[in-house]
Design goal:
Helix content: 25-40%
Strand order of the largest sheet: 1-3-2-6-8-7-12-13-11-9-10
Mean pLDDT: 92
Radius of gyration: 22 Å
Shape: globular
Structural class: alpha/beta
């Protein structure tokens, strides 16, 4: 892996700002425009940060301190992104512990001492709350870590805090505003503050884009990693279902839920996925991943596109000419890097619209109650009905903009033993897997599918709700197959993502292809936090 250019980026600026001091604390300089818009080493990623720590020019404590200062200056004041819902009061202590281990030459892996943000629907068995953005769980601390959090801690990551999200992971209202929760308020897009981050992993996306942490964890049921990652100019990986444990994640649907990395580079995302992946007896679906390699850094090959056959999913084009043009340029890069492109239609993508939601509603009701029993036994709400009743009692705080019709529809469903549920699940797997992605991959002998991840960020509108536009998320989400988005450029200064989707457990192959594309293009640019953006504005926008 050629990382020299990557490592050099911003190192001088980072060390000159005081990052080389082992006891560096947040300074007044962090609130200035220069530190706000030029984060230096904070934006560089895992490899650069690790090289500085290995050379004793940076400590985890100093790095964590600087991220905390940046959160204060960018998230809580200045642009006020509102991406971080809660800070970990133990973050600096954990960082010091990682520094001590490093001094004693005990390194846990590539994430040793690296600050990570966790989405607030993922349990952390510490002093922070786990709420899914709902006031119904405000103050509720999880009984123990989610499996993936325990794995990140074991890998040496510093849990910096929790990120805001679309409340209940966007499963509360059919007219919701992505990125808003009653507990956390609205997360704003760092590429244009009046535009949406998409959801539900809004805070994780905005935080990583704005260099509030090195990396972050998102979760996805359908689009909640790849959409905000695309819209915020990031790499997002929705892994194969079963690669990462879901135990300890406030669930929507066991048939589709997964956590995944959100990062500024494919390399960072691969390193994070390696730490997160693994079998867990509390999540039986992870048994399907037993015996598979989890060192995804080995997939980072600039030649990974050579000889690959990729299907261009043409039924996901045609929604915006400017986005199509940007992805068209990306397709030329794929070809120049050695890939063969074949125009295809992903079959039966409209056959599971209704049945997907049916499965989600059934499983959300059952899964929420199970999570609350295991991870929040002392919470005032213990099932869906209690959450609905809480929201009605606190409607001024919980429902000032939109209601809870999705929660009410879930509550009206029966149990997972109902034939209607089993039929809907089988229908989804038939048309998303066997007569969907599997069929098109086999018919054209493809290594994967490519398409625009979605549209560009829309204006946040609390009256009409989200205006999301096209999305390529559903086929892989319903099938449980891997999906990676990687920055493909900008339309009017707003990020656009290129998606790669493949067969189950082809995650490493997709990572390699995404890396080869990224290294051939280097599209990502750090956001400048403009209040708004218009077609005639130059890049980067003036602020």
């Amino acid at each position: 892996m050629d990382r020299r250019d990557f490592v050099r980026m911003g190192l001088a600026a980072g060390t000159a700002a005081g990052l080389s001091r082992t006891d560096a604390a947040p300074t007044a300089q962090a609130a200035t425009p220069a530190s706000m818009f030029k984060p230096g080493i904070l934006d560089a990623g895992v490899l650069a940060q690790q090289e500085l720590m290995a050379a004793h020019k940076l400590t985890s404590h100093a790095l964590t301190s600087q991220y905390l200062a940046r959160i204060k200056s960018v998230d809580k004041s200045g642009p006020r992104l509102n991406a971080v819902i809660e800070l970990n009061p133990e973050a600096l202590k954990i960082a010091l512990d990682m520094d001590r281990e490093r001094l004693h030459r005990k390194l846990r892996g590539p994430l040793h001492g690296i600050p990570v943000l966790i989405k607030d629907n993922i349990a952390t068995g510490d002093r922070m709350c786990t709420t899914a953005g709902s006031l119904a769980l405000a103050g509720v601390k999880a009984a123990r870590d989610a499996c993936l959090v325990a794995r990140l801690r074991a890998a040496g990551a510093v849990i910096l805090g929790k990120t805001n999200l679309s409340e209940w992971a966007n499963m509360r209202s059919s007219q919701s505003v992505s990125g808003w929760s009653a507990r956390g308020g609205l997360t704003r897009n760092p590429y244009a503050l009046d535009r949406n981050c998409s959801g539900s992993s809004s805070g994780s996306a905005a935080a990583v884009a704005a260099a509030l942490a090195t990396i972050a964890v998102g979760t996805e049921t359908d689009g909640s990693i790849v959409s905000p990652a695309s819209i915020c100019g990031l790499v997002g990986i929705k892994p194969t279902l079963g690669l990462v444990s879901r135990s300890g994640i406030i669930p929507i649907a066991q048939a589709q839920d997964t956590a995944g990395p959100m990062a500024r580079s494919v390399a960072d995302a691969a390193l994070m996925l390696s730490a997160m992946a693994g079998c867990d007896p509390d999540d039986p679906v992870t048994e399907n991943s037993r015996g598979r390699s989890f060192d995804y850094a080995q997939a980072l090959d600039v030649h990974a596109l050579q000889g690959k056959r990729l299907g261009v999913a043409r039924n996901f084009f045609g929604h915006r000419a400017d986005v199509d043009a940007r992805i068209g340029a990306a397709l030329q890069v794929l070809q120049a890097q050695g890939a063969t492109l074949v125009d295809v239609q992903v079959p039966n993508v409209n056959r599971y619209d209704d049945t997907e939601m049916d499965v989600l509603l059934y499983e959300f009701k059952a899964g929420l109650a199970a999570y609350l029993r295991q991870y929040a036994p002392g919470a005032a709400v213990q099932d869906m009905a209690a959450v609905i009743a809480f929201n009605r009692r606190h409607s001024a705080q919980e429902m000032p903009y939109f209601g809870q019709d999705v929660l009410e529809r879930a509550q009206a469903k029966g149990g997972l033993d109902e034939q209607a549920y089993r039929d809907a699940l089988a229908h989804n797997h038939r048309y998303a897997r066997d007569e969907g992605i599997d069929q098109v991959l086999a018919e054209h002998q493809l290594d994967g599918l490519v398409a625009p991840t979605g549209s560009i960020a829309w204006l946040t509108d609390f009256i009409s709700g989200d205006n999301t536009g096209m999305s390529f998320s559903s086929p892989a989400a319903v099938a449980g197959y891997p999906h990676i988005t990687v920055p493909a450029g900008y339309v009017h200064g707003l990020p656009v993502g290129l998606s790669l989707v493949g067969a189950p457990f082809s995650d490493a192959s997709l990572i390699g292809m995404a890396y080869a594309f990224e290294q051939a293009t280097h599209h990502r640019k750090a956001p400048q936090f403009p209040a708004t953006i218009s077609p005639d504005m130059a890049w980067p926008p003036q602020v």
